[in-house]
């Protein structure tokens, strides 16, 4: 089969690999029909996440057709059209039994502080991902769901991470009616978080970024006010000014490890890998939110230390909430919202890239060229 | 405003927001959201039909965090550790917990060693690494490279990217040169 393969920082190619096989009785093999590149894949692509091995196939956002099932699989059959949450989870451990699907304890031998994620390094379990023609899906009776007939593949693939994560991020922000919500980052997760904040009754939603084309999308898709942080000497002061000097009630970090806007943080975190990421957006969130407010962290960070302004968070009495999204827990309500026509996830898709050209796709996405917001990957596009 | 008990006024009323934004307030009740409460003990609702999953066969000594008491029932089998990078990775897992910086820093160092090893090994194959095609820079001409970058603040920080990409190649070339020169000197002697 053809599969995207990591060859070292900033380098990937498409190779011939063996079709994955059933390794556990509850495995399924899925033939991927559509995948996506996530902003967090760029952390891997840039060599930021520890134990990203040459030969690894990325991709934790994918949908496909069931190709083969293990002997204990009961809920799926060959030929089913399925969507697969980015979390790999057993459904029965201490954490899964309490709904913390993203924190499963039975699927990641490499780390206890991280759950299992498809195609997201050995730090997330050492599973090849879905930017390929076939992928092994453990616990097929627990993770994947048959895609409802009314849901198109392009919308379904966004439900496997970006939409569910943005929606989850808005929930972790503890939004109540009339809250002022600031979202740092106008990428896919930020756009979905901003859109979700309205569902929860936000009174104002402000999106901060430095890429004008993404801010334009935030205004159009997420109905948000926008601030380009490069137009202000100090974005924290501007946030205070625009909120009557109170600060936002809730802040959402939808940027994560490779934030820009501070040279020292960016160099040590994103380039030299001396931190678990560059927490610029997180620090701005901490300083922009009002005392007693909530910061929801959806941006992905590496497992080593980061220079976070914890003292400010303590002194302001903030609530910091964070997790990888337990995706499947979000789906029933999200499906209701999509069926009600509140918004269409695939409206943020900008690029559809054949698998054979995925190196070019990563370059465009990584460098934010050509108005790129969300690239999809199409196996067998030729 | 902030210096009194009043909250700054909002520019729009709930009615105006509901009229302007499809779905405004659909999840208004904080208690009625999919992730609330955070932990809901509900085994048997996930599709799992086991208490403890069956153990996946361990086909080689699988490296694992020492914060686990056992090998997890299911684990990834992609890219088993190999060569010097594999030695470093197995050492990081065997010796240091996830709480130790050494664990992660050794793993990051092993990643860089892996890249160099793999680049060198690829030259002995029919499919050697090609930094031109693998970095995707061939997409530049069709992706509005100048207009896309005009006025962006992050561009100056991207000047380090070529160093990160070219670094292993420069180091590898230097090592190859040293080895070749050493061999040549021995042959002449």
From TrEMBL, chain A:
CDD domains: FDH_like_1
Domain Alcohol dehydrogenase-like N-terminal, chain residue ranges per copy: 25-142
Keyword Oxidoreductase appears in the UniProt entry: yes
One MF annotation (Gene Ontology) recorded for this entry: zinc ion binding
Annotated keywords: Metal-binding, Oxidoreductase, Zinc
Domain Alcohol dehydrogenase-like C-terminal: 188-259
Cofactor requirement: Zn(2+)
Family recorded in the similarity comment: Belongs to the zinc-containing alcohol dehydrogenase family.
UniProt-recorded name of the protein: Glutathione-dependent formaldehyde dehydrogenase
Organism: Cellulomonas aerilata
Lineage: Bacteria, Bacillati, Actinomycetota, Actinomycetes, Micrococcales
TrEMBL record, chain B:
Protein species of origin: Cellulomonas aerilata
Protein origin, superkingdom: Bacteria
Name listed for the protein in its UniProt record: Uncharacterized protein
Annotated stretches, region: Disordered: 1-52
């Amino acid at each position: 089969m053809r599969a995207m393969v990591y060859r070292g920082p900033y380098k990937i190619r498409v190779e011939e690999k063996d079709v994955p096989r059933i390794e556990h009785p509850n495995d399924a093999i899925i033939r991927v029909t559509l995948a996506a590149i996530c902003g967090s894949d760029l952390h891997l692509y840039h060599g930021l996440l520890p134990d990203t091995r040459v030969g690894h196939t990325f991709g934790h956002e994918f949908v496909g057709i069931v190709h083969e099932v293990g002997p204990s699989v009961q809920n799926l059959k060959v030929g089913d059209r399925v969507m697969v949450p980015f979390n790999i989870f057993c459904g029965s451990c201490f954490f899964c039994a309490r709904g913390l699907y993203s924190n499963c304890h039975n699927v990641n031998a490499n780390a206890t502080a991280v759950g299992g994620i498809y195609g997201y390094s050995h730090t997330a379990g050492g599973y090849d991902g879905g930017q390929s023609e076939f992928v092994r899906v453990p616990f097929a009776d627990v993770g994947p769901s048959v895609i409802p007939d009314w849901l198109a593949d392009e919308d379904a693939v966004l439900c496997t991470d970006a939409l569910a994560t943005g929606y989850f991020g808005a929930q972790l922000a503890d939004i109540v009616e009339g809250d002022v919500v600031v979202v740092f980052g106008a990428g896919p997760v930020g756009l979905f978080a901003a859109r979700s904040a309205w569902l929860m009754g936000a009174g104002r939603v402000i999106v901060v970024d430095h890429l004008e084309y993404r801010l334009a999308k935030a205004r159009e898709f997420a109905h948000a006010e926008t601030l380009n942080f490069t137009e202000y000497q100090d974005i924290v002061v501007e946030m205070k000014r625009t909120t009557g000097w109170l600060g936002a009630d809730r802040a959402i970090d939808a940027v994560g490890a490779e934030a820009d806007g501070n040279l020292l943080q960016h160099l040590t975190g994103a380039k030299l890998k001396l931190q678990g990421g560059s927490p610029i957006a997180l620090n701005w969130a901490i300083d922009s939110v009002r005392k007693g407010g909530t910061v929801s962290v959806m941006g992905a960070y590496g497992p080593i230390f980061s220079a976070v302004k914890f003292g400010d968070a303590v002194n302001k009495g903030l609530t910091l909430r964070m997790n990888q999204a337990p995706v499947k827990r979000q789906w029933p309500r999200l499906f209701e919202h999509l069926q009600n026509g509140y918004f269409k996830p695939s409206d943020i898709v900008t690029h559809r890239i054949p698998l054979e050209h995925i190196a070019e796709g990563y370059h465009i996405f990584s460098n934010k060229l050509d108005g790129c917001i969300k690239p999809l990957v199409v196996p067998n596009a030729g | 405003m902030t210096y009194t008990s009043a909250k700054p006024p909002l520019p729009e009323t709930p009615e105006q927001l509901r009229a302007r934004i499809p779905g405004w307030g659909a999840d208004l009740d904080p208690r009625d959201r999919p992730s609330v409460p955070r932990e809901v003990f509900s085994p048997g609702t996930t599709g799992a039909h086991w208490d403890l999953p069956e153990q996946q066969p361990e086909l080689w000594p699988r490296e694992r965090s020492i914060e686990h008491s056992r090998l997890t029932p299911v684990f990834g089998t992609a890219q088993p550790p190999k060569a010097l990078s594999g030695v470093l990775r197995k050492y990081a897992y065997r010796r240091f917990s996830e709480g130790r910086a050494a664990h992660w820093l050794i793993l990051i160092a092993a990643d860089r060693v892996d890249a160099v090893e793999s680049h060198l090994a690829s030259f002995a194959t029919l499919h050697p690494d090609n930094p031109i095609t693998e970095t995707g820079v061939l997409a530049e001409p069709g992706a509005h490279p100048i207009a896309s970058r005009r006025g962006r603040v992050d561009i100056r920080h991207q000047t380090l990217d070529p160093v990160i990409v070219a670094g292993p190649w420069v180091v590898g070339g230097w090592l190859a040169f040293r080895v070749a020169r050493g061999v040549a000197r021995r042959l002449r002697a």
